[in-house]
């Protein structure tokens, strides 16, 4: 161990074998380390998992285990504090760096972390894995000179055999790459599932101890208690189209399942102002009335969109002053109309991938958030991006870039409400990358919502959806999930949940099964000799019926400040 590296005193977790019950039999697993450090430090921390399967992870044994990747020159150096690290210099290609060969096992999840620095300025650096099937990115960091920044990522082991870890940055002109505390930790599928189960018990459920007493306060033994969950504290919703206004089959399928929605297109600018200065809210208003009559909560999507292609046709080529005026009118027309009627606003959609409005008007996207917040302080305002958890190749909206965008908002003086919107338009998911991305984003201490979840049509579409849902729901940072599967007779955007007769497709079965599994369908138990029953319940509202004398109670199970058991006394 390099004694000059700093210990993460606050966030360091001891690694030990933990016991879980998974798939009906015990599994011993190393705890997953959800921690991520956002600060750029003078010296790197010790490697997660003591480096895992990485050889010489702290560069304490010279270059043992490390080789040059490409034509770069590699060497070790030592800081003033006595810390040794590896350096790649004389780089002429983005992938010229240092590398290590590892053995990958099929059906294994891998998490990667490292501490990076560059010799000048700052640069986007990605950890890559070269496999027989091609090179795959695993995680990004914005590395800086003068301090060490943490990279975190992951990849699926979809083959067995040798692979090569290396690092890549397009900034090659005289920029050296430095690295230290490099970790590669494998987890079996059972271990990964065990982490999810453990997270559910910690973040989605609470231990509850109920005591039944008579009118004199004396415990009643052998009383039968029926516990039924009436609502969940974890929001799950689905987008809807205007067809729900007239199609009773759509209504009958949708209404029992979802109490949270977002309109697919009907609130978007091109729908509500198809001609300049000519508002048309008849569909949005009718749909609002529909959801309000059924106590369905609504997300507002969206106020404006940075993608020029998503503007009303008449607004796409407006000169700068007229476009700015049109945007002002859009805000003044839409937001007050639905103020206090939506719980969220997607304010300036996809402003990391696109910047048309910003480039044409000269207004930073923060201006629109300040304006929306001044107009509706009751709604949570969201950034809303794709690619952040779906695509490890997306450098524009990588988790590191997302955090940088949030920091930009604060630097430019936005202090209003802010949520992290992750669209979640998946093709083939990389589950360890999803988890690592959420670990990084969770450090912002802002609400994280999956706003537009779907999986494109492909073999294993339903299986992928099941795996993604399992990862998203069990991550402690995620506070809500929205599916993007509004029914259209001609077909859905990417993923339908039913056919046109509203019979479930395999994806619909996955959603139904998921929603059943995260809710208690009913629990019957008897009190012990002291009148108690103990159980673990998902957070939400419950009806508790004591059959001893047919008394009913309503209780709420919420996440507490610690893991202590919630104790309630129920009288007959």
Automatic annotation (TrEMBL):
Keywords tagged on the record: Carbohydrate metabolism, Hydrolase, Polysaccharide degradation, Repeat
Protein name: GH10 domain-containing protein
Record keyword Hydrolase present: yes
Stated family: Belongs to the glycosyl hydrolase 10 (cellulase F) family.
Organism: Solanum verrucosum
InterPro entries: CenC_carb-bd, Galactose-bd-like_sf, GH, GH10, GH10_dom
Any Pfam family the entry gives: CBM_4_9
Cross-referenced PROSITE patterns: GH10_2, PROKAR_LIPOPROTEIN
One record GO biological process: polysaccharide catabolic process
Residues in GH10 domain copies: 221-514
GO molecular function: endo-1,4-beta-xylanase activity
């Amino acid at each position: 161990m390099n004694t000059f590296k700093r210990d993460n005193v606050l966030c360091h977790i001891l690694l030990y074998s933990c016991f879980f019950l998974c798939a009906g039999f015990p599994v011993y697993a190393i705890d997953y380390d959800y921690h991520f450090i956002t600060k750029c430090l003078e010296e790197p921390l010790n490697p997660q998992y003591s480096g895992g399967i990485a050889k010489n992870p702290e560069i304490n044994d010279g270059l043992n285990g490390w080789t040059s990747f490409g034509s770069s020159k590699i060497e070790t150096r030592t800081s003033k504090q006595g810390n040794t690290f590896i350096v790649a210099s004389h780089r002429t290609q983005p992938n010229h760096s240092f590398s290590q060969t590892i053995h990958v096992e099929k059906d294994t999840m891998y998490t990667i972390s490292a501490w990076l620095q560059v010799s000048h300025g700052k640069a986007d650096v990605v950890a890559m894995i070269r496999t027989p099937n091609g090179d795959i990115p695993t995680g990004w960091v914005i590395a800086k000179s003068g301090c060490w920044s943490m990279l975190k990522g992951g990849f699926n082991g979809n083959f067995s055999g040798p692979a090569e870890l290396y690092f890549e940055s397009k900034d090659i002109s005289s920029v050296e790459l430095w690295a230290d505390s490099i970790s590669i930790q494998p987890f079996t599928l059972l271990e990964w599932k065990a982490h999810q189960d453990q997270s559910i018990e910690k973040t989605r459920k609470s231990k509850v101890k109920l005591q039944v007493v008579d009118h004199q306060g004396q415990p009643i033994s052998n009383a039968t208690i029926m516990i039924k969950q009436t609502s969940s504290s974890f929001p799950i919703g689905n987008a809807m189209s205007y067809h729900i206004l007239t199609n009773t089959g759509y209504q009958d399928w949708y209404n029992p399942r979802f109490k949270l929605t977002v309109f697919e297109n009907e609130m978007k600018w091109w729908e509500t102002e198809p001609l300049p200065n000519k508002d048309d809210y008849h569909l949005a208003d009718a749909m609002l009335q529909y959801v309000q009559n059924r106590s369905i909560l609504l997300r507002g999507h969206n106020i404006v969109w940075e993608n020029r292609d998503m503007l009303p046709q008449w607004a796409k080529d407006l000169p700068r002053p007229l476009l700015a005026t049109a945007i002002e009118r859009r805000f003044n027309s839409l937001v007050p109309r639905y103020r206090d009627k939506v719980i969220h606003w997607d304010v300036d959609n996809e402003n990391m991938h696109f910047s048309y409005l910003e480039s044409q008007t000269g207004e930073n996207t923060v201006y629109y958030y300040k304006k929306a917040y001044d107009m509706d302080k009751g709604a949570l305002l969201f950034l809303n991006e794709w690619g952040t958890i779906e695509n490890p190749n997306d450098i524009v909206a990588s988790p590191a870039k997302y955090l940088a965008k949030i920091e930009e908002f604060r630097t430019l003086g936005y202090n209003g409400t802010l949520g992290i919107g992750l669209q979640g338009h998946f093709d083939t998911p990389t589950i360890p990358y999803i988890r690592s991305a959420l670990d990084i984003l969770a450090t912002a201490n802002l609400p994280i919502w999956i706003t537009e979840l779907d999986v494109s049509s492909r073999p294993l579409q339903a299986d992928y959806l099941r795996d993604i849902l399992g990862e998203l729901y069990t991550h402690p940072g995620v506070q809500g999930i929205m599916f993007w599967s509004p029914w259209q007779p001609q077909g859905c955007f990417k993923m339908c949940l039913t056919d046109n007769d509203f019979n479930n497709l395999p994806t619909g079965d996955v959603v139904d099964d998921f929603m059943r599994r995260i809710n208690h369908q009913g629990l019957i138990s008897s009190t012990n000799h002291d009148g108690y029953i103990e159980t673990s319940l998902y957070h939400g509202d419950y009806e508790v019926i004591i059959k001893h004398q047919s008394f009913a109670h309503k209780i709420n199970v919420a996440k507490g400040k610690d893991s202590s058991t919630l104790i309630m006394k129920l009288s007959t």
